[in-house]
From TrEMBL:
The name this protein goes by in its record: Acetylhydrolase
Record region (Disordered): 211-231
Pfam family, one: Lipase_GDSL_2
Ranges of biased composition (kind: Basic and acidic residues): 211-222
Organism: Gluconacetobacter azotocaptans
Leader peptide range in chain numbering: 1-23
Alphabetical list of InterPro entries matching this protein: SGNH_hydro (IPR013830), SGNH_hydro_sf (IPR036514)
Protein keywords: Hydrolase, Signal
Length: 259
């Protein structure tokens, strides 16, 4: 049975007036949720906090396992991400704040507990989040959208001079429900999230994992795993294509030459 949270209406997004207060309170996508009881997550969070406390960062990648994968080194070509990170971000004082399994609620907790405690304002935040909202958290597009809005607005409230590059949720091959909600969410992000936010740019990088307008299994690493998983995470070459696609926007935000 689908949890009650996934069927609560968000009337404001549908143009039907304000959502009821009880519906807003019940939306887990906008509520900070900790994962500190998960040992590896706790350790990674502590390591990133130490880096934030002692380093200078101009570029912040913020997200889930797709972002965390930038730290992986092969040995297979399909999961050798680190060279692309080094090429595009190695000289840009960048930090990877990707955590496997995180959804919008977990990112909101991280932002409230130290992941915005930079010594100097970063120049650019690159945000890619929402795929896991459609998985274990199971919030639909209408509920996930306010979670993403809250993330970017939280960043801006803390660092009004920083730019935010928001990426749409990447296509995957998991279920018809997830595909429909991914498409709906990205349409809403494209149409609405930039309004009144001149510091934010939205980009849809979905074409990097598609062929003829549909997700291409060969551009996902999950089928290579043992046992295989449903296609969700781009291979290293597909993720390099994402970095290449967004590079003009990154360079523009940083006032930098294109890498």
């Amino acid at each position: 049975m689908r949890p009650l949270l996934s069927v609560l209406p968000v009337l404001a997004l549908l143009g039907l007036g304000a959502a009821p207060a009880h519906a807003i309170r019940a939306n887990i996508a906008i509520q900070p949720v900790s994962r500190m009881d998960t040992p590896w997550w706790h350790q990674r969070f502590a390591e990133k906090q130490a880096a934030i406390a002692h380093g200078r960062f101009d570029v912040v990648w913020l997200g889930d396992s797709i972002t965390q994968n930038w730290e992986r080194n092969g040995p297979e070509a399909w999961r050798d991400f680190a060279p692309t990170w080094q090429r595009y971000y190695g000289d840009r004082h960048a930090i990877n704040l990707g955590f496997k399994g995180d959804s919008t609620c977990h990112v909101l907790w991280r932002l409230a507990h130290g992941e915005l405690d930079f010594r100097t304002p970063p120049r650019l935040f690159i945000v890619l989040i929402g795929a896991n909202n459609f998985g274990h958290v199971h919030t639909d597009a209408g509920l996930t959208y306010p979670g993403i809005v809250r993330i970017v607005d939280t960043i801006h409230a803390r660092f009004p001079s920083s730019r935010v590059l928001l990426l749409g949720v990447l296509p995957s091959i998991r279920s018809a429900w997830i595909t429909a909600n991914t498409q709906q969410l990205n349409r809403t992000l494209h149409d609405d999230i930039g309004r009144g936010r001149p510091w934010l740019r939205y980009m849809d990088a979905g074409a990097t994992v598609e062929r003829d307008g549909a997700p291409d299994r060969s551009r996902f690493l999950d089928p290579h795993l043992t046992p295989p998983d449903p296609p969700l995470h781009p291979t290293a070459p597909a993720q390099e294509a994402i970095a290449r696609m967004i590079e003009p926007a990154v360079a523009d935000a940083l006032g930098d030459h294109r890498h």
